[in-house]
Input
Amino acid sequence: MKKVLNKTLLAVIFGVLLGLIVKFFIVDLLRINGTSMEPTLFDGDLVLENKLAYGFAVPFGDKLFFSWNRPKVGEIVIYLYQNRLIVKRCVAVQGMALEYSAVSGYTVSVGEKTYPLTEEQYHNLYSISFVPDGYIMAIGDNVLTSLDSRSYGFIPIKNVLGRIQ
Output
């Protein structure tokens, strides 16, 4: 009886440890909070974060310990900003050209896509003609309500913690 109890306890402890390792280092299930990624992701949606997509993240940190891949345009990434996990779409990677216009409202164009800017965002960004080395530009799919790179700047690649699957 005591042997069975010990084996059961060891199996439970091993299972809990394995689950924690998976959650902290490999994949995590997250709930979307907010409307900035609509119509792709809605408030309350559950999504799977691939924590190994770009590298090995420091647990409870905002940086990658090892990096083996970089975000690509179109991927939905997750990063830490002001102690909050942020989910946005990568719309530009390092070296990509940024073209600004103030003709009929303020905009920034990246490749074939154009995103609206407020006057303040325009004046903060218009002197930057390329995404800086080591950074990405991340914008919510709901561009009219999203608080993103247009407001708080480019995201260091080393701070991108994973990709939403």
Observations:
- Helices lie at 2-26, 119-125, 149-152.
- The chain has a mean pLDDT of 90.
- The first strand starts at residue 27 and ends at 31.
